[in-house]
């Protein structure tokens, strides 16, 4: 199980859901009930790179997680 961030392509709502690999494609928007949602990556990466922790937003140095 993982808490993943999503964004609805219909209404723009950002939300998170606790999902596993079996139900990740069944996530619906809590605001408009659309199934037109996609996973987004929020925050900063936590490994490698700079003294700020992770890549510090320079995805070229860590492969990207934003």
Fold and architecture overview:
It is built from no helices and 3 strands. It is 0% helix and 26% strand. The protein starts with a strand and ends in a 26-residue tail after the last strand. It has a domain of 43 residues: Rubrerythrin, domain 2 (Single Sheet), CATH 2.20.28. A 3-stranded antiparallel beta sheet has the order 2-1-3, with no helix packed on it. It is globular, with a radius of gyration of 14 Å. The protein has 66 residues and is mainly β.
From the structure above, extract its key features:
single chain; about 70 residues; mainly beta; Rubrerythrin, domain 2; 3-stranded antiparallel beta sheet; 3 strands; about 0% helix; globular
Q: Taking all residues together, what is the mean pLDDT?
A: 79
User: Helical element count?
Assistant: 0
SSE sequence, one letter per element: EEE
Query: What is the CATH-assigned architecture of the domain at 1-43?
Result: Single Sheet
Strand content: 25-35%
* Broad shape: globular
Strands of the biggest beta sheet: in what spatial order? 2-1-3
Q: Low-confidence runs (pLDDT<50, min 5 residues)?
A: 49-53
Distance between the termini: 20 Å
């Amino acid at each position: 199980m993982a808490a993943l961030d999503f964004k609805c392509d219909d209404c723009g709502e950002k939300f998170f859901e606790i999902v596993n690999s079996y139900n990740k494609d069944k996530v619906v928007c809590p605001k408009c009930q659309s199934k037109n949602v996609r996973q987004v990556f929020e925050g900063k990466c936590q490994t490698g790179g700079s003294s700020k922790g992770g890549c510090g937003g320079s995805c070229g140095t860590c492969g990207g997680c934003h």
